[in-house]
């Protein structure tokens, strides 16, 4: 199932920041600063702990499960970023902020976006086309049509006899 990707604004066109954009950026900066203060106070993780976390998260996401996006950031710079293909917007969940590689603004709220396409094509389906004949093995006791007709006739006679008894 392919997601229907959404657009918001035109990243390459002139963009006037809105009051909501300013509010979101201010909130993002406050959250980022709060988080940085608390992370600085936390004890460092050992290499073993980092390995456990990486094992828990699993392998990296394959390229064919990623979507490319053009993003306009709060600072006005336009960048390309990747997100999971299952999400119709690049600014949902935890991905609503980026670090601007040009000016270094961190975090920079996404104010406009448009999809560019998948990062890579999915691999060809490993299943081959359906065979033209059945690959199912026939049951062990293959009876002829005549034998089945005879058995059916005998069962009907037995059924009629049971009905007459009741």
Question: Could you please describe the fold and organization of this structure?
Answer:
By secondary structure, the chain is an alpha+beta fold. The protein contains 3 helices and 4 strands, in the order H-H-E-E-E-E-H. It has helices spanning 19-41, 47-57, 145-165, and strands at 66-73, 78-84, 97-98, 108-118. The longest helix has 23 residues, at 19-41. The relative contact order is 0.16. The mean pLDDT is 86.
The helical percent reads 25-40%
Strand coverage percent: 15-25%
Radius of gyration, taken over Cα atoms and rounded to an integer in Å = 32 Å
Order of H and E elements:
HHEEEEH
Separate helix tally: 3
* Secondary structure tally: strands: 4
The termini sit apart by 58 Å
pLDDT averaged over residues:
86
Within the largest sheet, what's the order of strands? 2-1-4-3
The coarse silhouette is elongated
Structural class: alpha+beta
Offer a concise description of the structure.
With about 170 residues, the protein is an alpha+beta fold.
């Amino acid at each position: 199932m392919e997601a229907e990707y959404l657009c918001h604004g035109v990243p390459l066109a002139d963009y006037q920041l809105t009051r909501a954009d300013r509010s979101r950026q201010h909130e993002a900066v406050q959250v980022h600063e709060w988080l940085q203060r608390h992370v600085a106070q936390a004890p460092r993780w050992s290499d073993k702990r980092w390995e456990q976390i990486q094992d828990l998260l699993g392998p990296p996401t394959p390229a064919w499960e990623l979507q490319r996006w053009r993003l306009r950031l709060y600072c006005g710079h336009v960048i390309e970023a990747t997100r999971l293909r299952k999400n119709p917007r690049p600014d949902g969940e935890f991905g609503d902020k980026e670090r601007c590689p040009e000016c270094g603004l961190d975090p920079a709220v996404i104010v406009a976006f448009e999809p560019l396409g998948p990062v890579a094509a999915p691999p060809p389906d490993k299943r081959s086309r359906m065979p033209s004949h059945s690959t199912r093995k026939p049951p062990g006791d293959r009876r002829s049509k005549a034998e089945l007709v005879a058995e059916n006739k005998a069962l009907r006679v037995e059924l009629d006899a049971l009905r007459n008894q009741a």
